[in-house]
Write a structure and sequence with these properties.
Elements (H helix, E strand, L loop, with lengths): L1 H6 L2 H7 L6 H6 L1 H16 L12 E6 L9 E8 L12 E9 L10 E11 L5 E8 L9 H11 L12 E8 L2 E10 L3 H4 L13 E5 L14 E5 L9 H12 L2 H4 L12 H14 L9 E5 L12 E4 L24 H7 L2 H15 L5 H15 L2 H8 L13 H26 L8
Parallel strand pairs: 1-6
Antiparallel strand pairs: 1-2, 2-3, 3-4, 4-5, 5-7, 6-7, 8-9, 8-10, 10-11
Helix pairs in contact: 4-13, 9-11, 12-14
């Protein structure tokens, strides 16, 4: 905050200074410092003045019209890394179209944005793409639930078994010259992210991605009710056959057919991926993510090779770690599943694999200490941006009727993680216990 204080007039500097304060006192003064900064910004600095002390990359988004959900409006985006001076470097300025992103979240004052650039852009160590999401996380006071969840799933990867999820980075955004808050810049889940083969209009079969958009996507019925087709582009080719056949198989086969070694579920679905996806849902307690807001993908079949298997990709994880989609509190003792996952867990061999994977991850990636450390790392990365965002978006009468602060949400999240993991240890042991066959 030092450079910001230096830019304030002397009276504001004296009031906002933390010189001589203890660490605890300095933390308590953060909201005051942020309020003073914005007061000065409006009175003296002008609304378009940058944030000189930002520890996060700054994205300046300027639209050439009112942003709506559809169609996209022309925009220009200029980005700066922390500590970098203002520059006209053309490599940091990009043009394209911007529109609102999300469904129910569009009702919130702070909205998410979807950006489609005129040319692919490589940002902040992530992959090159023309399509990006600026996630507002309006109902997530911690600002980090998406990032925590996606990073967690990616960390379950091994060299020959990737776990695909959006990479993301915390940023701060100005919109048409005015500070607009802290955001999460995220990759879009698409064919390129998942390493799927390109669409060929002359081919009979294609790579496919389907997104579950409502609770009808429970795998308990034939057809594709509750899904959107994302790949191939439905404007180029409607392609529901793979999903229809998969849902018919899961919902209609006998147990003998379902678990048959030669033509059963293991030949149609990546079971190791399914286990990790289910564990992600359980650890995060995604109340809106086990029969909705998930993606099912499969690569393009190749002649002479086994049929590619479907795999899961997580999406929309703000309703996690102790909070529901509308920000209400969630307990720690809820088991989440769907018809497909229930069928899998009905088989003794699958239960053994599930229990073994849980124990393996609990010793590392899913240890209580590791998860709490990751939360703390994100707190440090966000820095004062969390307080600036809270000042910009005061939601005392909105989705957070309990008037939760950033610090309180972080504290509650850590306590929730402790209780949730202890409950899952006992519950998974109980549900995966394999009976010894009678002699």
């Amino acid at each position: 905050m030092h450079s910001t204080l230096c830019s304030l007039p002397p009276p504001y500097q004296r009031l906002a200074s933390t010189e001589g304060c203890s660490r605890e006192e300095a933390v308590m003064q953060r909201p005051i410092r942020s309020l003073l900064f914005f007061a000065w910004l409006q009175l003296y600095g002008g609304a378009a003045e940058p944030l000189p002390s930002a520890a996060l990359p700054m994205i300046h988004l300027d639209s050439q019209g009112t942003i709506v959900s559809d169609p996209g409006v022309p925009c220009r985006i200029r980005w700066l890394t922390p500590g970098a001076p203002e520059t006209s470097d053309p490599s940091r300025t990009h043009t394209g179209l911007v529109r609102f992103h999300g469904a129910s979240s569009q009702a919130y004052p702070k909205k998410s944005f979807k950006v489609a650039f005129d040319a692919p852009v490589k940002w902040l160590g992530m992959r090159e793409s023309a399509h990006w999401v600026l996630n507002a996380a309006f109902v997530d006071r911690s600002l980090m639930r998406h990032k925590l969840s996606y990073d967690l799933f990616r960390s379950m990867s091994s060299s020959n078994a990737p776990r695909y999820a959006s990479a993301s980075r915390f940023v701060e955004v100005t919109l048409n010259g005015k500070y607009h808050g802290a955001y999460l810049l995220m990759e879009r889940v698409d064919r390129a992210l998942l390493g799927l083969r390109k669409f060929d209009s002359n081919a009979t079969h294609h790579a496919c991605i389907y997104k579950a958009i409502d609770h009808a996507a429970n795998f308990d019925r034939p057809g594709h009710a509750g899904y959107e087709q994302r790949e191939p582009d439905p404007e180029l080719r409607e392609y529901w056959g793979p999903l229809d056949r998969f849902n018919k198989f899961v919902s209609s086969t006998t147990d003998a057919q379902f678990f048959a070694p030669d033509k059963g579920i293991a030949t149609r679905l990546d079971l190791d991926n399914a286990i990790d996806f289910h564990l992600l849902v359980l650890v995060t307690s995604n109340m809106d993510g086990y029969d909705k807001n998930l993606m099912l993908a499969r690569d393009m079949p190749e002649e002479g090779k086994p049929l590619p298997r479907f795999f899961f990709v997580p999406w929309d994880y703000d309703a996690t770690f102790g909070r529901n989609w509308e920000a209400s509190r969630v307990g720690t003792s809820e088991w989440l599943s769907n018809h497909l996952l229930d069928r899998l867990l009905s088989h003794a061999d699958y239960r053994r694999r599930f229990a073994s994977r849980w124990k393996e991850l609990r010793a590392g990636t899913l240890s209580t200490e590791r998860l709490r450390e990751t939360v703390d790392e994100n707190v440090r990365t966000l820095g004062d941006a969390a307080q600036r965002n809270a000042v910009r978006w005061q939601t005392l009468d909105g989705p957070y009727p309990d008037r939760l602060t950033f610090e309180e949400d972080i504290d509650q999240m850590k306590q929730w993680i402790n209780r949730r993991l202890k409950w899952l240890d006992a519950e998974i042991e109980r549900r995966t216990a394999v009976e010894t066959p009678a002699k």
